[in-house]
Amino acid sequence: MATNKSFEGEEWPVIIIGAGPAGLFLALKIAKKGVRVLVLEKEKYIVPSPRANIYMPIVLNEFEKVGIFEPFTKVGFQSPEGPTWRTPYTKGNKVLAKMNYSLIPKGSALKYKFAGMHLGQHQLAALFLEHAQKLPNFNNKWNHCFTSVEQDSDGATVHVSTPEGAKAFRAKYVIACDGASSAVRQSLSIPFDGTTWTNFRFMATNVKYDFTVNGLGIANTVVDDEDWAIIVRLDRDPNFWRVAYGIKDGMDLSTEECLKTIPEKFERLFPGERPLKYEVVNANPYVAHQRCAGKFREGRVILCSDAAHCNSPIGGLGLTTGLLDCAALGNCLIRILVRNEADPDALLDRYAKVRRGAWLGYTNPQSTENTLRMLSNDPEVAARRNKFFDKLNTDPGFHIQLAEAMNEVLIDSFETDGT
Ligand SMILES: Cc1cc2nc3c(=O)[nH]c(=O)nc-3n(C[C@H](O)[C@H](O)[C@H](O)COP(=O)(O)OP(=O)(O)OC[C@H]3O[C@@H](n4cnc5c(N)ncnc54)[C@H](O)[C@@H]3O)c2cc1C
């Protein structure tokens, strides 16, 4: 029990650390159902770095439940096509296989009349924020950097550094949505075991160029051990694209050196007339990992999204899994704080176990295989890749199977009444 009031303002039912897409989606979900929530973010705005931009039907279904699907359709791009796997421009730009969404009956695997929605994750986060700010239960503070947390039987005290000095806030539950380098997770000494992809550096660029005029699909995976890439349309602007590629053995390169690889790489990847005319809007190098927290819960502190797990971006499963964590955790918090459900500890333990299982059982192996399929020369991987492409090219049932497999990311949404 806190003996004296050594924290700012009132006690919050929930404090979320991190105003990324996960933190803001979770805040919107629970604030809508009557939970007072405070989001503390270390930056002074939503971080705009080029990262996630494709959202699958299973996630859109959760957006629908929170009333954010319709607003999202007004800003996002509804892609009519599934992914295409192809060779690089330098090797003929040949289509190897394509996922055909018209083969998938509209139902559980594909509810919508499009394959996926495209929008930069910072714009999606801004949409969550815009809608959350209309709710009286939602509060947020920028420039509030988490430093530590203490727990007792009644709640948790969160310590932050701010431009005005150190502050403390009190909550019943603290949710770590502070990304893969989570300061919350580290402050609790929770291990983040796994592996790092040390054979490449991942470059993400946002580029103005018209790839469809130049013969590419909407979402392309370029398969090659050297010139692998992801080339996908970013949003409603037909000339705005994400080009992500690997720099083989580029782990030790500085950011500057990574950026210098762009012109030569684009020359090898881009179809179209030479000299190429494009504009790089932003670019960032990343290191890719397959890592998972040893546990997703330590008392009143619960890990969610990238703070709990991170994986290679190939196949778009990172934020997908993170947003589904938020959907599940949001339902648990609503059950505990609005419906006063008995035994909150058992419910939160189950969240921690189920969501860790979803990452270990589906997201980790699937994102690993997606990455290897794109770049590995290992004979066993090559055999699996050929079989995968053969099945896509010859077996209509395989398209349905792949679309349905996505449902494994949400084993249990912890709903009790469909909300
Ligand atoms: C190039 C690239 C492409 C990707 N593409 C896809 C894709 O297409 N689909 C997909 O599903 N996933 C994709 N991902 C993964 C996706 O970007 C992440 O899963 C997503 O960012 C996770 O969101 P988050 O809100 O959990 O964490 P973050 O987006 O990392 O947000 C964390 C927030 O916490 C804040 N924070 C950090 N430390 C503190 C602190 N101490 N105190 C307060 N605040 C703090 C940060 O400033 C940030 O605002 C991609 C990743 C990369 C790198």
Task: Give structural notes.
With 419 residues, this protein is α+β, with helices and mostly antiparallel strands. It folds into two domains: 11-79 and 115-195 and 293-409, FAD/NAD(P)-binding domain; 196-289, D-Amino Acid Oxidase, subunit A, domain 2 (D-Amino Acid Oxidase, Chain A, domain 2, 2-Layer Sandwich), CATH 3.30.9.10. The chain has helices at 21-32, 57-65, 69-75, 121-132, 183-187, 255-259, 262-269, 318-337, 344-375, 379-394, 396-405; strands at 11-17, 37-40, 54-55, 77-79, 84-86, 95-98, 116-118, 138-141, 145-151, 156-162, 165-176, 192-196, 200-208, 219-222, 229-233, 240-248, 279-286, 289-293, 297-298, 301-303, 309-310. The strands form four sheets. Strands 1, 2, 8, 9, 10, 11, 19 and 20 form an eight-stranded mixed beta sheet that branches. Strands 6-5-14-15-16-13-17 form a seven-stranded mixed beta sheet. The two termini are 33 Å apart. It binds flavin-adenine dinucleotide (FAD). Flavin-adenine dinucleotide (FAD) binds next to helix 1, strand 9 and helix 8.
